[in-house]
Here is the input.
Amino acid sequence: MKVHVHLFAYLVKYAPEGRSDFSIELQPGACVRDLIGHLGIPPAEKKIILVNGRHSGEDTVLNEGDEIVFMTQVEGG
Amino acid sequence: MHGWRGRVLRINLTTGTLKEEKLDPKVARDYIGGRGLGIYYLNREMDPLVDPFSPENMMIMAVGPLTGTRAPTGSRYMIMTKSPLTGSLTCSNSGGKFPKEMKKSGFDAFIFTGRSEKPVYLWVDNGKYELRPAGHFWGKTVNETTDILNGETVPEAKVACIGPAGERLVLFAAVMNDKDRAAARSGVGAVMGSKNLKAVVVHGQGDVPVYDEAGFKELRTGALHKFQEANKNSPPVLRMYGTSYGVASNQKIGTLPTKNFQQGTWEKWEKVSAQTMVDNFLEKPKYCSDCPIGCGRGTRVKDPEFEGEGEGPEYETIYALGTDCLNDNLAALIKANYICNDLGIDTISMGSTIACAMELYDRGYLPEKDIGQPLKWGDAKAIVEFARKTGYREGFGDVLAQGSYRMAERYGHPELAMVSKKQDLAGYDPRGVQGLGLAYATSPIGASHMRAQTAYFEVFGVPTIVDPQKWEGKPRLVKIHQDMASVLDSTGVCYFFAIRYYVRPVLEVTPEGFCNFLNAATGAGYTIEEVEKTGERIFNAERQFMVKAGFSRKDDTLPDRLVKDPMPEGPAKGLVVHLDEMLNEYYKLRGWDKNGIPTKEKLKELGLA
Here is the structure.
């Protein structure tokens, strides 16, 4: 199944072709953890995970057409 | 005294007399400094019912015991007064270099009363002080004024001043320092203008004495080491992008205020994103005194139509002058930001007021002849032009200068001003960030995202993510963070460092770090419980002022749009702010009655009765 991924800030270095947003093919029934493994993001790297705009954990199961965003921990004022 | 200078300076602008006064150690201990010291004097010495532009309004500039001590990010000060925009008290915060220099000049606070007959400025140099004439540069911009004053005093002096906007009593005029840093909110610049006070210039030599030098140094090194460790694999995101990262963060969860809060996402968001800013306009990061982060943006616009250089934009500026107005021209946005800095204007209220005018025009409530030209969504040139016109109160700028609420009321639709207590909301749509909705509504200064920046844990994941769409559990977290922020604003350090290194990085933000640093700096021997209680005391003392000024539950509000109209699209679709439910629980937790008034028991408990 195809999902859309958006990597922010220094997480862009894990983008397969260097582009910060891209589509990727995953096995049906894959979860966020599988995607993280596929991209090679180290488990220790602190990140915020959004699936379709909602904060999610690594166990969240993905579906065709989902948008997954990985952001670093930051702040704003 | 250590940490504290132990002295405040009283300036009676009516008589032109200056008097220094000892800072009572018990007051210093019970209120810490900065924001706490400000509310102590405001409650004690002024009538909360006075007209903010009258000589009876007090204006206090106050640093904290950690300001200027080389505690990491000990670079902040507060301006406290009664606001002409909201009618409530305000505490407006700024960083840069001025606060440390003010501390070095020898004082914990400058307390201004009265009104000068002629324009003046205060010059404080190593414990000596005088009022000097400012008539010959009244009317000059912030940049011009700062250069003139460095020429008239010493090149190393630091300057806080108003521009044309403060002189003309624009209701959201700022007090600028170091040219590009702003004590921006609630019209503190207008209060200064109403007193004919053009500037405060400070200079000091020597270190600020601390109580336990060895202990303090160890704490300082330890905190900086933790910071380096946390950022060893990549530079701090705040240094790379500044706060503008917030554009993507809010867009992706559907809380990016767009078109005067009519939407929560914008398909053109990348035109004004952090990456676009870095790729096209960033020259270098900028640092406040003793700060390792460097979140400030030194920028330059080369496009001849919007040419300029300076500092900014911050995220809030990008929301207000960008997404909120459907303005996708980042060069124009940055130019408008430079104009606001140079004329001394709060960028948040400026942008939000223009967005409100755009909606009034769009709906046919605001006639074109009043504006003098069309004012369509996204008109970048108009935004730049009206920032300038507002600062000088020219043409329709005179209406904009009243702020969004008074303008919208004048045209028959006050509900279209996105405000709380007549002050404009910040860059997070609370329908998708419920805790911040409560924080906006119960902030003592009117809508503010910095009197409990709950977006830390609701949006940015510091220390951990808490679901922003849920309102349950938020009243307790908002109270804890409001009390912590009251301490923070009183010590003189910066939120961006404090949230990880001055508090234990848990949701309950235990003020361990504050306690340790305060004790090493001052020798006061605080316990953690005392520091927590002090935060609660300061917040309740502010509520006391507000109650006397006529505020209660009826004013702890949000715009109808955010409480009644479900978010129409995006990840936060269908949500409204559950303000009533949160307020009921919040007042109980605070020990206030159902009308939001602190009970006698609560005030007695805090030593305020």
User: Anything to note?
Assistant: Chain B has 26 helices and 17 strands. The two ends of chain B are 28 Å apart (CA to CA). Chain B has a mean pLDDT of 97.
